[in-house]
């Protein structure tokens, strides 16, 4: 997909990482909407898969991944706010990642790319904001991995952000989610075409990445949604043959097959691992102390049917805000579409977000 | 594992299947405990992985997969009941399945083995019971796939069974469970060593089957159990390297790696598919009409944290019993160990089962 409004910015020096390693002059791809007015910037952080293209910039532009939420008159009202969205460090939509050339060799980094953390990603986005002359954010907002990133940003730069909105994100990643991502990474690595990450000359490990995406898709939705949507409907083929398919199987396969066309398998591994390493309390004396760094007013949103971030994790995070002396506003939405509801139900997410941003 | 108490019985003719195909003289491996007395037989049906070896037969014997539940003085009290447990048709623990020789070729069937249904499995076990001179069961009982099998047995042979106990089983398989098994089958098939099922001369597709088992293991437990058990504990290796492992990852890998030592990859595919095809209402006018065939007194047990069979499916099945005019006794246990709780908490499952069997 052409992304004509994508801009890129290169950090003019070496960038130090949590791991102790560094990356030379990393590039960040980003897009902006609206006009900066000094106090009206919103940083929108992304989930695992999306690019910086959150919304169209004009009628001729392609729709973005949060089209219903970002634009004139929408909850992230671009007539009022200056919205910035970046492709994360480690990604594959224009920012430096494992598919980028390693300056040492001229070849793609592949697995020589260093492990990056969510904190690394946000430190780099903070540098970009400084480059854009944004000294203080009206808000940082994100969903899924973007919610973790927003939390980390508010903890890393407490003086630089007034409002924090974290959707379908926990304060630290729990083992069930680690398990679910572990098997996704294993699926990529099981594909012989992965070749230890050195596949760039021969093409993607499409089968393994597709299977990983199928597994991921299961974790983004819910049992009750699929019961109501697919039930036991049969798609095609003989009931008594492995080639026969239930509709749910056909749906999963479609989700899996299209994914390698737009996503790099190694970026998938790196961002997956970065989410496993997510822990607001790491190096800070635990979750409550990590949350205590945050000075922003905070809005937390969870969904009752989320398999990946069950509501007990949202409650745990909300309790950490209470314990840290900065109670967050908490919305647990009873919606049946699971983790990805923020992409599907702008009707449910839009009003509390718009109200919180305007408050 | 040597199973010295395993017996086998061969149906002395061709066995017709739901698919319209047939299998020549299928063998059933089975074990029995206790003494038959005409009216005291219990058929214990198995889940996906277990053999017929549910419990030890004497102090020198290896423990079985339901050791705490089957034996003298235990809930399935073998001083009182004559317990029969079979390895299912399609399995790999002594019964005919895809790893058995195809009489046409002398080579393993592999994917030439016909798709079998849970009904096929229970029709064959019914033949075995006739061979054992068991005309009527005091009870049929099973968990997980075994629960589906028990339900099907009671619907197929309503006059032959007095009591039915179905644990962690639904009346029909819902799309979320199909999705979870679909990705497990895909993992097996992604392994190049699977070779379209013709791997018997070179050895199992161990990597693919291990990954399938890892995915399965996730579905057998629960988020809250693992949060309490593993949390974010780190196992070994560098935090900033893909070889580093959380404890949950090490646990999953261990579960995965040992599985191909005792389970055939093609059997896994066939039984996985058979569960997807599970629908008490198939060919009977829907779920309620399927349940209406059942004349047994029924006990249904579910677990609040079961990901694979969420309680709404247990409720749906219980409601079908009510609608069919034969209300079942329903226990929904609030246990945090998920789908596999029947293997872990004999304290919770034993008393209601013992009471129901003795009533």
Gist?
With 359 residues, chain A is of the alpha/beta class. Helix content of chain A is 35%, strand content 17%.
User: Uncertain spans of chain A, ≥5 residues at pLDDT below 50?
Assistant: none
Number of helices of chain A: 11
Any guess at the CATH architecture of the domain at 7-174 and 278-358 in chain A?
A: 3-Layer(aba) Sandwich
Work out the strand percent of chain A: 15-25%
Sheet with most strands of chain A: 8 strands, mixed
Termini separation of chain A comes to 36 Å
Quaternary structure annotation: homodimer
CATH superfamily of the domain at 7-174 and 278-358 in chain A: Alpha/Beta hydrolase fold, catalytic domain
Summarize the largest interface: chains and residue counts: A-B, 55 and 56 residues
Outline type of chain A: globular
CATH class of the domain at 7-174 and 278-358 in chain A: Alpha Beta
Structure characteristics:
two-stranded antiparallel ribbon, Rossmann fold, 11 helices, eight-stranded mixed β-sheet, alpha/beta, 359 residues
